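Ticket #4471: structure export looks truncated?
Reporter: QA, pipeline team
Priority: medium

Steps to reproduce: submit the single chain below to the structure queue and open the exported record.
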Amino acid sequence: MKDSIIILCGGGPAPGMNTVVCSVAKTFLAGGYRVIGLHGGYSGLFSKTPRTEDLDFFKADAYFNRGGSYLQMSRFKPTDKDFEENFNLSLFQDNNIKLLVTVGGDDTASTANRIAKFLEAKQYPIKNIHVPKTIDNDLPLPNNAPTFGFNSAKDEGAHIARTVYEDARTSGNWLLISAMGRSAGHLALGIGEATHAPMTIIPEMFNKTDITIDKIVKLTLSTIIKRTILGIPYGTVVVAEGVFHDLADEDIKAAGIHMTYDEHGHPELGKISKAVLFNELLEKEMKKTGLKAKTRPVEIGYDVRCQDPIGYDLTYCSELAMGVYELFQKGETGCMVYVDAFGTARPLYLHDLQNAEGKIPPRRVDIEGGIAQNYYNFICHFVTPADYEAAKAYVPNPEAYDFKKILNW
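Actual output as written to the record:
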Protein backbone atom coordinates (compact mmCIF):
# COMPACT_ATOMS: atom_id res chain seq x y z
CA MET A 1 0.00 0.00 0.00
CA LYS A 2 1.22 3.49 -0.88
CA ASP A 3 2.22 5.89 1.84
CA SER A 4 -0.55 8.47 2.23
CA ILE A 5 -1.15 11.93 3.62
CA ILE A 6 -4.46 13.42 4.74
CA ILE A 7 -5.52 17.09 4.65
CA LEU A 8 -8.24 18.92 6.59
CA CYS A 9 -9.39 22.56 6.77
CA GLY A 10 -10.61 24.16 9.99
CA GLY A 11 -12.29 27.43 10.97
CA GLY A 12 -13.73 29.83 8.41
CA PRO A 13 -12.85 30.25 4.73
CA ALA A 14 -10.05 32.43 3.41
CA PRO A 15 -8.88 33.02 -0.17
CA GLY A 16 -6.21 30.44 -0.95
CA MET A 17 -7.68 27.45 0.90
CA ASN A 18 -8.00 25.52 -2.34
CA THR A 19 -4.59 26.72 -3.49
CA VAL A 20 -2.91 25.24 -0.41
CA VAL A 21 -4.86 21.98 -0.44
CA CYS A 22 -4.52 21.40 -4.16
CA SER A 23 -0.86 22.44 -4.26
CA VAL A 24 -0.13 20.05 -1.38
CA ALA A 25 -1.95 17.38 -3.37
CA LYS A 26 0.01 18.05 -6.57
CA THR A 27 3.34 18.14 -4.74
CA PHE A 28 2.81 14.91 -2.82
CA LEU A 29 1.25 13.12 -5.80
CA ALA A 30 4.39 13.93 -7.77
CA GLY A 31 6.37 12.40 -4.90
CA GLY A 32 4.47 9.13 -5.20
CA TYR A 33 2.07 9.57 -2.29
CA ARG A 34 -1.65 9.00 -2.12
CA VAL A 35 -3.47 12.19 -1.06
CA ILE A 36 -6.70 12.00 0.96
CA GLY A 37 -9.00 14.96 1.61
CA LEU A 38 -10.95 14.93 4.88
CA HIS A 39 -14.24 16.85 4.98
CA GLY A 40 -15.62 18.42 8.15
CA GLY A 41 -12.41 19.74 9.66
CA TYR A 42 -11.31 18.09 12.90
CA SER A 43 -14.69 16.42 13.36
CA GLY A 44 -13.59 13.81 10.83
CA LEU A 45 -10.66 12.73 13.01
CA PHE A 46 -13.01 11.93 15.88
CA SER A 47 -15.74 10.18 13.90
CA LYS A 48 -16.17 6.50 13.11
CA THR A 49 -17.58 7.44 9.71
CA PRO A 50 -15.36 10.24 8.36
CA ARG A 51 -16.12 11.63 4.93
CA THR A 52 -12.98 11.32 2.84
CA GLU A 53 -12.05 11.32 -0.83
CA ASP A 54 -8.90 10.90 -2.82
CA LEU A 55 -7.50 14.04 -4.41
CA ASP A 56 -6.00 13.31 -7.82
CA PHE A 57 -4.18 15.64 -10.19
CA PHE A 58 -7.25 16.53 -12.23
CA LYS A 59 -9.29 17.51 -9.18
CA ALA A 60 -6.39 19.51 -7.75
CA ASP A 61 -5.74 21.20 -11.09
CA ALA A 62 -9.39 22.21 -11.46
CA TYR A 63 -9.73 23.80 -8.01
CA PHE A 64 -6.32 25.21 -7.02
CA ASN A 65 -7.07 28.78 -8.17
CA ARG A 66 -10.67 29.01 -6.96
CA GLY A 67 -12.10 30.71 -3.91
CA GLY A 68 -13.88 28.89 -1.11
CA SER A 69 -12.81 25.44 0.04
CA TYR A 70 -13.41 22.21 -1.84
CA LEU A 71 -12.91 20.39 1.46
CA GLN A 72 -15.85 21.26 3.70
CA MET A 73 -14.70 23.16 6.76
CA SER A 74 -15.75 23.05 10.40
CA ARG A 75 -15.12 24.89 13.68
CA PHE A 76 -15.30 21.63 15.62
CA LYS A 77 -13.01 21.59 18.67
CA PRO A 78 -12.32 18.15 20.16
CA THR A 79 -12.64 17.72 23.92
CA ASP A 80 -10.21 15.81 26.10
CA LYS A 81 -12.74 12.99 26.06
CA ASP A 82 -12.70 13.00 22.25
CA PHE A 83 -8.94 12.51 22.28
CA GLU A 84 -9.09 9.61 24.71
CA GLU A 85 -12.15 7.83 23.34
CA ASN A 86 -12.95 8.97 19.80
CA PHE A 87 -9.66 9.54 17.95
CA ASN A 88 -9.99 7.50 14.75
CA LEU A 89 -6.62 5.74 14.69
CA SER A 90 -7.92 3.14 12.26
CA LEU A 91 -8.39 5.89 9.66
CA PHE A 92 -4.62 6.35 9.68
CA GLN A 93 -3.72 2.67 9.99
CA ASP A 94 -6.11 1.43 7.29
CA ASN A 95 -4.90 4.04 4.80
CA ASN A 96 -1.20 3.99 5.70
CA ILE A 97 -1.31 7.73 6.49
CA LYS A 98 2.08 9.15 7.45
CA LEU A 99 1.22 12.87 7.62
CA LEU A 100 -1.72 14.98 8.79
CA VAL A 101 -1.81 18.44 7.17
CA THR A 102 -4.08 20.96 8.91
CA VAL A 103 -5.02 24.29 7.36
CA GLY A 104 -6.49 27.03 9.53
CA GLY A 105 -6.19 30.01 11.85
CA ASP A 106 -5.36 30.41 15.52
CA ASP A 107 -8.06 28.02 16.79
CA THR A 108 -7.08 25.36 14.24
CA ALA A 109 -3.42 25.87 15.09
CA SER A 110 -4.16 25.48 18.80
CA THR A 111 -5.92 22.18 18.10
CA ALA A 112 -3.01 21.13 15.87
CA ASN A 113 -0.77 21.74 18.89
CA ARG A 114 -2.97 19.46 21.00
CA ILE A 115 -2.84 16.80 18.29
CA ALA A 116 0.95 17.03 18.10
CA LYS A 117 1.19 16.41 21.84
CA PHE A 118 -1.33 13.57 21.60
CA LEU A 119 0.49 11.80 18.75
CA GLU A 120 3.80 12.12 20.58
CA ALA A 121 2.38 10.85 23.86
CA LYS A 122 0.78 7.84 22.14
CA GLN A 123 3.91 7.28 20.03
CA TYR A 124 1.81 6.99 16.90
CA PRO A 125 3.98 7.13 13.74
CA ILE A 126 2.07 10.08 12.31
CA LYS A 127 3.54 13.51 11.64
CA ASN A 128 1.48 16.71 11.60
CA ILE A 129 2.22 20.05 9.94
CA HIS A 130 -0.02 23.13 10.10
CA VAL A 131 -0.47 25.76 7.36
CA PRO A 132 -1.30 29.24 8.76
CA LYS A 133 -4.50 30.70 7.32
CA THR A 134 -6.69 33.66 8.27
CA ILE A 135 -7.94 36.87 6.73
CA ASP A 136 -7.37 38.41 10.18
CA ASN A 137 -3.57 38.08 9.74
CA ASP A 138 -3.28 37.25 13.42
CA LEU A 139 -1.02 34.18 13.57
CA PRO A 140 2.46 34.89 15.00
CA LEU A 141 4.64 34.56 11.90
CA PRO A 142 8.14 36.12 11.92
CA ASN A 143 9.13 39.36 10.21
CA ASN A 144 5.52 40.52 9.88
CA ALA A 145 4.92 37.82 7.26
CA PRO A 146 1.20 37.65 6.39
CA THR A 147 -1.04 34.67 6.85
CA PHE A 148 -2.41 33.46 3.54
CA GLY A 149 -5.78 34.91 2.63
CA PHE A 150 -5.08 38.25 4.28
CA ASN A 151 -3.86 40.07 1.18
CA SER A 152 -6.70 38.77 -0.98
CA ALA A 153 -9.27 39.78 1.64
CA LYS A 154 -7.62 43.18 2.01
CA ASP A 155 -7.67 43.63 -1.76
CA GLU A 156 -11.39 42.93 -2.01
CA GLY A 157 -12.09 44.91 1.16
CA ALA A 158 -10.21 47.87 -0.27
CA HIS A 159 -12.15 47.53 -3.53
CA ILE A 160 -15.42 47.78 -1.60
CA ALA A 161 -14.14 50.56 0.67
CA ARG A 162 -12.82 52.76 -2.14
CA THR A 163 -16.14 52.41 -3.96
CA VAL A 164 -17.86 53.38 -0.73
CA TYR A 165 -15.48 56.33 -0.31
CA GLU A 166 -16.38 57.55 -3.78
CA ASP A 167 -20.04 57.31 -2.85
CA ALA A 168 -19.33 59.38 0.26
CA ARG A 169 -17.49 62.01 -1.78
CA THR A 170 -20.14 62.09 -4.49
CA SER A 171 -23.12 62.32 -2.15
CA GLY A 172 -21.57 64.33 0.67
CA ASN A 173 -22.17 61.57 3.24
CA TRP A 174 -20.20 59.69 5.85
CA LEU A 175 -20.01 55.92 5.36
CA LEU A 176 -19.25 53.82 8.44
CA ILE A 177 -17.50 50.60 7.50
CA SER A 178 -17.17 47.58 9.78
CA ALA A 179 -14.44 45.11 8.82
CA MET A 180 -13.82 41.60 10.10
CA GLY A 181 -11.14 41.11 12.74
CA ARG A 182 -12.12 39.29 15.93
CA SER A 183 -8.87 39.72 17.85
CA ALA A 184 -6.76 42.11 15.81
CA GLY A 185 -7.15 45.12 13.53
CA HIS A 186 -4.85 44.14 10.65
CA LEU A 187 -7.61 43.89 8.05
CA ALA A 188 -9.37 47.10 9.09
CA LEU A 189 -6.09 49.03 9.20
CA GLY A 190 -5.03 47.63 5.84
CA ILE A 191 -8.35 48.67 4.26
CA GLY A 192 -8.25 52.09 5.94
CA GLU A 193 -4.70 52.83 4.81
CA ALA A 194 -5.25 51.51 1.28
CA THR A 195 -8.29 53.76 0.77
CA HIS A 196 -7.07 56.80 2.74
CA ALA A 197 -9.98 56.60 5.14
CA PRO A 198 -9.63 59.57 7.49
CA MET A 199 -10.21 57.35 10.54
CA THR A 200 -9.73 53.67 11.32
CA ILE A 201 -10.58 52.33 14.76
CA ILE A 202 -8.91 49.09 15.89
CA PRO A 203 -8.60 47.39 19.30
CA GLU A 204 -4.85 47.98 19.47
CA MET A 205 -5.36 51.77 19.54
CA PHE A 206 -6.62 51.41 23.09
CA ASN A 207 -3.26 50.34 24.47
CA LYS A 208 -3.31 53.08 27.12
CA THR A 209 -7.01 53.20 27.95
CA ASP A 210 -10.09 50.97 28.05
CA ILE A 211 -12.31 50.51 24.99
CA THR A 212 -15.70 52.15 25.51
CA ILE A 213 -18.59 53.09 23.26
CA ASP A 214 -18.07 56.73 24.18
CA LYS A 215 -14.46 56.66 22.96
CA ILE A 216 -15.35 54.88 19.71
CA VAL A 217 -18.01 57.49 18.99
CA LYS A 218 -15.78 60.43 19.96
CA LEU A 219 -12.96 59.21 17.70
CA THR A 220 -15.46 59.14 14.83
CA LEU A 221 -16.77 62.61 15.65
CA SER A 222 -13.19 63.83 15.90
CA THR A 223 -12.60 63.07 12.23
CA ILE A 224 -16.00 64.47 11.19
CA ILE A 225 -15.31 67.73 13.05
CA LYS A 226 -11.79 68.00 11.62
CA ARG A 227 -12.96 67.49 8.05
CA THR A 228 -15.81 69.95 8.59
CA ILE A 229 -13.24 72.54 9.66
CA LEU A 230 -11.23 71.71 6.52
CA GLY A 231 -14.33 72.12 4.33
CA ILE A 232 -14.53 68.40 3.51
CA PRO A 233 -18.13 67.33 4.18
CA TYR A 234 -17.66 63.61 3.56
CA GLY A 235 -15.52 60.59 4.39
CA THR A 236 -15.34 57.02 5.60
CA VAL A 237 -14.58 55.55 9.01
CA VAL A 238 -13.36 51.94 9.19
CA VAL A 239 -13.84 50.06 12.45
CA ALA A 240 -12.61 46.56 13.28
CA GLU A 241 -15.36 44.36 14.68
CA GLY A 242 -13.00 43.41 17.49
CA VAL A 243 -13.57 46.73 19.26
CA PHE A 244 -17.19 45.72 19.84
CA HIS A 245 -16.20 42.27 21.08
CA ASP A 246 -13.96 43.92 23.68
CA LEU A 247 -16.67 46.19 25.11
CA ALA A 248 -17.82 45.61 28.65
CA ASP A 249 -21.32 44.10 28.86
CA GLU A 250 -22.57 46.94 31.03
CA ASP A 251 -21.35 49.47 28.47
CA ILE A 252 -23.47 47.85 25.76
CA LYS A 253 -26.53 47.67 27.98
CA ALA A 254 -26.12 51.30 29.08
CA ALA A 255 -26.06 52.39 25.42
CA GLY A 256 -29.60 51.04 24.96
CA ILE A 257 -28.67 48.77 22.05
CA HIS A 258 -31.19 45.94 21.61
CA MET A 259 -29.68 42.51 21.04
CA THR A 260 -30.03 38.91 22.11
CA TYR A 261 -27.98 37.36 24.90
CA ASP A 262 -26.56 33.86 25.28
CA GLU A 263 -27.13 31.50 28.19
CA HIS A 264 -24.35 33.21 30.13
CA GLY A 265 -25.91 36.66 29.71
CA HIS A 266 -23.32 37.89 27.19
CA PRO A 267 -24.45 39.92 24.15
CA GLU A 268 -24.45 37.90 20.94
CA LEU A 269 -22.58 40.44 18.83
CA GLY A 270 -21.98 37.87 16.10
CA LYS A 271 -25.67 37.98 15.20
CA ILE A 272 -25.86 41.71 14.49
CA SER A 273 -24.29 44.04 11.96
CA LYS A 274 -21.42 45.90 13.62
CA ALA A 275 -21.81 48.67 11.05
CA VAL A 276 -25.48 49.16 11.91
CA LEU A 277 -24.64 49.13 15.62
CA PHE A 278 -21.86 51.66 15.01
CA ASN A 279 -24.16 53.90 12.98
CA GLU A 280 -26.92 53.79 15.59
CA LEU A 281 -24.52 54.76 18.38
CA LEU A 282 -23.10 57.62 16.34
CA GLU A 283 -26.50 59.02 15.37
CA LYS A 284 -27.53 59.14 19.03
CA GLU A 285 -24.45 61.15 19.95
CA MET A 286 -24.79 63.52 16.99
CA LYS A 287 -28.32 64.37 18.07
CA LYS A 288 -26.92 65.40 21.45
CA THR A 289 -24.17 67.56 19.96
CA GLY A 290 -26.21 69.06 17.13
CA LEU A 291 -23.64 68.05 14.51
CA LYS A 292 -25.10 67.72 11.03
CA ALA A 293 -23.80 64.76 9.04
CA LYS A 294 -25.52 62.00 7.11
CA THR A 295 -24.15 58.58 8.01
CA ARG A 296 -24.72 55.18 6.45
CA PRO A 297 -23.49 51.71 7.59
CA VAL A 298 -21.53 49.28 5.38
CA GLU A 299 -20.45 45.78 6.45
CA ILE A 300 -17.31 44.16 5.02
CA GLY A 301 -17.38 40.56 6.16
CA TYR A 302 -18.43 37.37 4.47
CA ASP A 303 -17.98 38.95 1.04
CA VAL A 304 -14.16 38.82 1.35
CA ARG A 305 -13.74 35.23 2.57
CA CYS A 306 -14.56 33.06 -0.47
CA GLN A 307 -13.36 35.20 -3.35
CA ASP A 308 -10.73 33.92 -5.77
CA PRO A 309 -7.23 34.49 -4.39
CA ILE A 310 -5.16 37.30 -5.94
CA GLY A 311 -1.78 36.56 -7.54
CA TYR A 312 0.08 37.13 -4.29
CA ASP A 313 -1.83 34.40 -2.46
CA LEU A 314 -1.75 32.03 -5.43
CA THR A 315 2.05 32.18 -5.30
CA TYR A 316 2.35 32.29 -1.53
CA CYS A 317 -0.02 29.36 -0.97
CA SER A 318 1.84 27.29 -3.56
CA GLU A 319 5.11 28.00 -1.72
CA LEU A 320 3.55 27.05 1.62
CA ALA A 321 2.37 23.76 0.14
CA MET A 322 5.80 22.94 -1.26
CA GLY A 323 7.20 23.95 2.14
CA VAL A 324 5.02 21.29 3.76
CA TYR A 325 6.59 18.67 1.50
CA GLU A 326 10.13 19.89 2.26
CA LEU A 327 9.55 19.88 6.01
CA PHE A 328 7.98 16.43 5.90
CA GLN A 329 10.92 15.04 3.94
CA LYS A 330 13.22 16.44 6.63
CA GLY A 331 11.24 14.62 9.32
CA GLU A 332 9.64 17.71 10.85
CA THR A 333 6.40 17.44 12.84
CA GLY A 334 4.36 19.39 15.38
CA CYS A 335 5.07 22.59 13.52
CA MET A 336 3.62 25.37 11.42
CA VAL A 337 5.17 25.97 8.01
CA TYR A 338 6.72 29.41 7.48
CA VAL A 339 7.95 30.66 4.12
CA ASP A 340 10.07 33.80 4.05
CA ALA A 341 10.19 36.51 1.38
CA PHE A 342 12.74 34.48 -0.58
CA GLY A 343 10.60 31.33 -0.68
CA THR A 344 12.63 29.44 1.91
CA ALA A 345 10.54 27.20 4.17
CA ARG A 346 11.28 26.47 7.80
CA PRO A 347 9.32 25.07 10.74
CA LEU A 348 7.78 27.08 13.56
CA TYR A 349 7.26 24.59 16.36
CA LEU A 350 3.80 24.86 17.87
CA HIS A 351 5.05 24.23 21.41
CA ASP A 352 7.29 27.30 21.07
CA LEU A 353 4.34 29.49 20.07
CA GLN A 354 1.86 28.35 22.73
CA ASN A 355 0.86 30.33 25.80
CA ALA A 356 0.39 28.94 29.32
CA GLU A 357 -2.97 27.41 28.30
CA GLY A 358 -1.42 25.64 25.30
CA LYS A 359 -3.17 27.93 22.81
CA ILE A 360 -1.55 29.89 20.00
CA PRO A 361 -2.11 33.56 20.93
CA PRO A 362 -3.12 36.00 18.18
CA ARG A 363 -0.66 38.45 16.67
CA ARG A 364 -1.99 41.96 17.11
CA VAL A 365 -1.18 45.15 15.22
CA ASP A 366 2.02 46.79 16.46
CA ILE A 367 0.41 50.11 17.27
CA GLU A 368 3.81 51.69 17.91
CA GLY A 369 5.22 50.39 14.62
CA GLY A 370 5.70 52.27 11.38
CA ILE A 371 2.63 50.96 9.56
CA ALA A 372 0.18 52.12 12.22
CA GLN A 373 1.99 55.30 13.21
CA ASN A 374 2.49 56.49 9.63
CA TYR A 375 -1.20 55.97 8.91
CA TYR A 376 -2.38 57.84 11.99
CA ASN A 377 0.21 60.62 11.64
CA PHE A 378 -0.11 61.32 7.91
CA ILE A 379 -3.43 60.03 6.54
CA CYS A 380 -5.94 60.39 9.38
CA HIS A 381 -7.89 63.55 10.10
CA PHE A 382 -8.70 64.31 13.73
CA VAL A 383 -9.01 67.16 16.19
CA THR A 384 -5.79 68.48 17.77
CA PRO A 385 -5.26 71.42 20.16
CA ALA A 386 -4.64 73.65 17.13
CA ASP A 387 -8.26 73.01 16.06
CA TYR A 388 -9.95 73.91 19.35
CA GLU A 389 -10.94 77.46 18.41
CA ALA A 390 -12.38 76.49 15.02
CA ALA A 391 -14.09 73.42 16.51
CA LYS A 392 -16.05 75.59 18.95
CA ALA A 393 -18.34 76.48 16.05
CA TYR A 394 -19.57 72.85 16.12
CA VAL A 395 -19.09 71.58 19.69
CA PRO A 396 -18.74 73.48 22.96
CA ASN A 397 -15.96 71.25 24.31
CA PRO A 398 -13.51 70.47 21.47
CA GLU A 399 -10.92 69.00 23.82
CA ALA A 400 -13.31 66.06 24.39
CA TYR A 401 -12.76 65.15 20.72
CA ASP A 402 -8.97 65.49 20.75
CA PHE A 403 -7.69 62.22 19.22
CA LYS A 404 -4.67 61.86 21.46
CA LYS A 405 -6.54 62.78 24.62
CA ILE A 406 -9.25 60.22 23.90
CA LEU A 407 -6.61 57.51 23.59
CA ASN A 408 -4.31 58.90 26.30
CA TRP A 409 -1.47 58.88 23.75
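Status: closed, not a bug. The export was complete when the record was re-opened. Leaving a note from the reviewer for reference: The mean pLDDT is 92.
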